[in-house]
């Protein structure tokens, strides 16, 4: 079987981004951009090896990043050169003469999906060169000076992305021919094959708008939002009972609804679960002392804490002017301050075990809506809080994520909305399963969408 080698091109210094740090080291959603990118290929079952091509000055930094992440597939960190194509050549020369597929991807495209990678690998079974592209939404004009010279047919135009993938022998031959050309100029590898090996057809895989490249400072805001809206592929994770056996997990809000179902599922898989709630243990997450006391009790009883899940929350579906100050303060204290208390008090225990911390947001976090002003704003704050502490605690090995379920059949929802058709709602069990999978993942700083199948 032909090996699939992912080549992550990280040789740039990011001058157009306007930051002092190279753009591949820019942090978003709790991790460096390059960490998100390599994670995609590390998780893909069709990728056999990963090669990172780096600016020579940054090789040591990347070596530390590889060790910290524990990536198993990274086999080489190669030095790039002055030009973009020098990075491609470094990988080509490392594997020249071997029967492998080289899958080149920009390090600063961290949102590439598993679907795109799968489709590229599948296409390589038939074709020797593969590109990824999306239709252009804008009219493209060809200008001469300051005037339009030609307007191409938009229906035939595509915007190129990466990965770009090739049989090693094909891309090696294309560059061999190109380097003999004194007028050789290129910005991408498919362009080299197209110009110097026109006899080789280049198949085009459908890309995605979210597979964007971090180039300009404005892109950082859009990329951050895309990570918030990203439907993280949690369904690919299987629940392995052996990974939960003996783990000590704390569930706040564990007496009913999603919290109860999550605690039940964890116990089914062999975890030791400690449940806390206002109705059963008189534990109120809005009171920091209650949270501190609960966690200290668990540590004293079980000797460790491997994970903390906070499902406690309140929903007041009212116009702002109809809410009294006491109701507003109570909602903010439970939803937001409760999240902060759980994180702050949980930190020393999770640092000891390099543990997991999970909070809950709501689909309403992406935009404020009438009657949800306090609820939506606290849920949006939780997303930002999760991304911030995921970045702060990354070096401690603590993974922090946020579950974002669609409308779910829970007692809290029944109280606010009455009876609704079951086929329009998630079950608490479905959300619990996604929560346990997230607990087992190495994701951090992610918003995990849970949607009806």
Task: Describe the structure in your own words.
There is one protein chain. The chain is of the alpha/beta class and 453 residues long. It has 14 helices and 19 strands. It has helices spanning 33-43, 59-69, 84-95, 114-123, 168-178, 189-196, 217-229, 241-244, 257-268, 288-302, 325-353, 373-392, 411-417, 428-440; strands at residues 3-10, 27-28, 31-32, 49-54, 74-79, 100-106, 129-135, 142-144, 147-150, 158-167, 203-206, 248-252, 272-276, 307-310, 356-360, 399-405, 408-409, 426-427, 447-450. The strands form five sheets. Strands 5-4-1-6-10-7-11 form a seven-stranded mixed sheet, with helices on both faces. A six-stranded parallel sheet has the order 13-12-14-15-16-19, sandwiched between helices. A two-stranded antiparallel ribbon has the order 2-3. α3 crosses α5 (168-178) and α10 (288-302) runs parallel beside α11. The model has no long low-confidence stretch (mean pLDDT 90).
Secondary structure topology:
Blueprint: E1 3-10, E2 27-28, E3 31-32, H1 33-43, E4 49-54, H2 59-69, E5 74-79, H3 84-95, E6 100-106, H4 114-123, E7 129-135, E8 142-144, E9 147-150, E10 158-167, H5 168-178, H6 189-196, E11 203-206, H7 217-229, H8 241-244, E12 248-252, H9 257-268, E13 272-276, H10 288-302, E14 307-310, H11 325-353, E15 356-360, H12 373-392, E16 399-405, E17 408-409, H13 411-417, E18 426-427, H14 428-440, E19 447-450
Parallel strand pairs: 1-4, 1-6, 4-5, 7-11, 12-13, 12-14, 14-15, 15-16, 16-19, 17-18
Antiparallel strand pairs: 2-3, 6-10, 7-10, 8-9
């Amino acid at each position: 079987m032909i090996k699939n080698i992912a080549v992550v091109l990280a040789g740039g210094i990011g001058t157009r981004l306007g930051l002092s740090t190279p753009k591949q080291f820019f942090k978003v959603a709790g991790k460096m951009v390059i960490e998100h990118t390599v994670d995609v290929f590390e998780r893909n079952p069709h990728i056999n090896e990963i090669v990172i091509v780096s600016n020579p000055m940054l090789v040591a930094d990347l070596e530390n990043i590889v060790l910290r992440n524990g990536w198993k597939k990274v086999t080489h960190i190669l030095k790039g050169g002055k030009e973009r194509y020098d990075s491609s050549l470094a990988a080509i020369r490392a594997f020249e003469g071997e029967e492998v597929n080289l899958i080149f991807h920009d390090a600063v495209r961290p949102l590439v999906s598993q679907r795109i990678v799968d489709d590229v690998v599948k296409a390589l079974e038939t074709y020797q060169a593969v590109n990824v592209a999306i239709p252009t939404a804008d009219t493209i004009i060809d200008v001469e000076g300051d005037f339009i010279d030609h307007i191409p047919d938009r229906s035939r135009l595509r915007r190129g992305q990466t990965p770009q993938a090739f049989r090693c022998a094909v891309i090696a031959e294309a560059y061999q021919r190109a380097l003999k050309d004194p007028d050789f100029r290129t910005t991408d590898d498919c362009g080299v094959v197209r110009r110097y090996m026109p006899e080789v057809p280049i198949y085009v895989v459908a890309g995605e708008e979210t597979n964007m490249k971090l180039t300009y400072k404005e892109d950082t805001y859009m990329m951050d939002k895309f990570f918030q809206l990203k439907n993280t592929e949690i369904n690919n994770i299987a629940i392995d009972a052996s990974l939960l056996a003996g783990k000590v997990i704390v569930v706040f809000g564990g007496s009913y609804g999603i919290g109860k179902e999550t605690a039940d599922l964890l116990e089914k898989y062999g975890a030791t679960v400690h449940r806390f709630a206002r109705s059963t243990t008189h534990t109120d997450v809005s009171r920091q002392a209650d949270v501190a006391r609960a966690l200290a009790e668990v540590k004293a009883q079980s000797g460790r804490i491997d994970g903390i899940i906070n499902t406690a929350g309140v929903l007041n579906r009212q116009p702002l002017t109809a809410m009294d100050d006491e109701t507003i303060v109570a909602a903010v204290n439970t939803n937001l301050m409760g999240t902060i208390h759980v994180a702050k008090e949980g930190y020393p225990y999770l640092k000891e075990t390099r543990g997991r911390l999970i909070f809950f947001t709501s689909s309403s976090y992406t935009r404020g809506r009438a009657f949800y002003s306090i609820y939506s704003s606290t849920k949006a704050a939780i997303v930002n809080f999760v991304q911030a502490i995921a970045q702060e605690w990354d070096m401690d090995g603590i993974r922090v994520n946020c579950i974002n379920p669609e409308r779910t059949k829970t007692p809290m929802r029944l109280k606010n909305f009455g009876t609704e058709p079951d086929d329009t709602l998630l079950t608490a069990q479905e959300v619990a399963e996604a929560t346990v999978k997230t607990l087992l993942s190495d994701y951090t700083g992610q918003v995990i969408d849970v949607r009806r199948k």
